[in-house]
Structure formats: C-alpha cells, structure tokens
Request: fold
Amino acid sequence: MERKHKGKCPFCNSEMAPEVIEKNTIRRDKCKCTTCGEIIYKCRNIFCNDYAKGGLLYDDELCPPCGEGLLKAVKEFPDKYRAAIQKVVEEKNREKNN
Reply:
C-alpha cells in the first residue's frame, strides 16, 4: 500500500506516514492514520505537512493548527488595519467631493 509523507494526525496527534486508501488526481488523496485508523487528508496549507480530519459529511480543509492560525488572523485583521482602511476611505471621499 502506498504511503504519504510523515505528518501529524489530527485525531491522535501521532507523527506517522498514513496509508493512501483512495488515490485521486484532482482532489486530495483519502488516507488512513496508521496509528488510530481514522480517515485523514493532507492539510490545504501548502506550507504545512500535517493532516486534516476526514468526516462522514464533510472533510476539513485545514489541520487544527492551521485552522486556529487562520481564525486568529481573521479576528486580528479589523483591529490591525482599521485605521489604514479608514484613512483610505476618507481620502476617497475627499476626492469625490472635490
């Protein structure tokens, strides 16, 4: 059976090289953790080598750490860029009124 690269399982947190149980060309390969037997998929973050959870109705796109990182970035975005966005909007409004 073919194996994927080593990465962390989102279910049992073990570092393993999962077995490919369904090879795909367009979608991600369906894999099985060699430690706990759960269905997993490669994380969609191209810089990450870990795995995302597979489910009955939905397969996660990102592994837990990447998902948490994205959520944190989205929460911080408004505070970090609010002043800059407001400045651009005010400049555009001034240009419109002139």
Notes: The chain has a mean pLDDT of 91. Residues 7-97 form one domain.
